[in-house]
């Protein structure tokens, strides 16, 4: 029998609001106020989200981000920086005690990412899970999409979706980026490299490592088309029914307060 989860389509919001809403949903689910949630959203203006532990100094070109109109925000989740621009972003919030959720982070990635896999199939794209051989090979790069991690989605050997996960207050929060288009000129200008030659080499190699949906789709996929496809994908991949949820005034007030006090503060975003 299908289980019913809440579905939130929050549209395009600013970076601080997006991260505050994810955290607020985590709190509400932890308190038993709401069932598990899947949320889709976009970014307006574009955002550069930093992993929880990621350093800004020496890694991120803050002036370049400002020049492009991208707002910096730090995530609750780990990993490396992601430029959120022309993409569909998703969040999944579910209790660690949910009977279908494995105890390990890696295995939980596999379960949740089945929804992403089915979403790509809905778009007619043949994606598969990244399964690195042995221990993950990591580099000093600050750019998320340069390397796939366990059970992230790849198409033709290239990373097509990036995800990050944290567990707090008994709740799994996994959110991730599904790019529709990627401007790698803009992307690499936001990171600091030893010199322009090294930056240009990294920029040129990006196309061998990552891919956006509209690089591979036979026809242009819009945000709304992607949203519909991945909603169906999560329902099929997780064997759930998604029920639209409208944020109550109490939650909206909590999100606004958290966005202002935390996610718009330099102390949170830059102090690591």
From TrEMBL:
One of its GO terms (molecular function) is transferase activity. One of its GO terms (biological process) is protein lipoylation. The keyword Transcription regulation does not apply. Residues 32-242 form the BPL/LPL catalytic domain. Pfam families: LplA-B_cat. Keywords: Ligase. PANTHER family: OCTANOYL-[GCVH]:PROTEIN N-OCTANOYLTRANSFERASE, OCTANOYLTRANSFERASE LIPM-RELATED. This is Lipoate--protein ligase family protein. It comes from Aquibacillus salsiterrae. The lineage of its organism: Bacteria, Bacillati, Bacillota, Bacilli, Bacillales.
């Amino acid at each position: 029998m299908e289980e019913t989860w809440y579905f939130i389509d929050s549209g395009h919001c600013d970076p601080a609001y997006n991260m505050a809403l994810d955290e607020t949903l985590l709190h509400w689910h932890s308190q038993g106020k709401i069932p598990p949630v899947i949320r889709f959203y976009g970014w307006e203006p574009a955002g550069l989200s930093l992993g929880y532990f990621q350093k800004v100094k020496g890694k991120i070109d803050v002036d370049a981000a400002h020049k492009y109109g991208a707002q910096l925000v730090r995530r609750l989740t780990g990993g490396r920086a992601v430029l959120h621009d022309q993409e569909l972003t998703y969040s999944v919030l579910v209790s660690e005690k949910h009977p279908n959720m494995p105890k390990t982070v890696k295995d939980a990635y596999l379960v949740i990412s089945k929804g992403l896999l089915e979403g790509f199939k809905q778009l007619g794209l043949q994606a598969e899970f990244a399964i690195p051989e042995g221990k993950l090979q990591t580099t000093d790069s600050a750019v998320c999409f340069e390397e796939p991690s366990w059970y992230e989605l790849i198409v033709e050997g290239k990373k097509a979706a990036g995800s990050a996960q944290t567990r707090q207050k008994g709740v799994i929060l996994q959110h991730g980026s599904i790019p529709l288009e990627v401007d790698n000129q803009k992307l690499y200008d936001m990171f600091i490299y030893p010199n322009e030659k090294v930056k240009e080499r990294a920029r040129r190699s990006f196309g061998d490592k990552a891919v956006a949906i509209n690089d591979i789709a036979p026809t242009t996929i819009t945000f709304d088309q992607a949203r519909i496809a991945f909603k169906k994908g999560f329902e099929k991949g997780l064997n759930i029914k998604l029920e639209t949820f409208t944020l109550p005034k109490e939650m909206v007030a909590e999100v606004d307060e958290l966005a202002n006090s935390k996610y718009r503060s330099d102390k949170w975003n830059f102090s690591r």
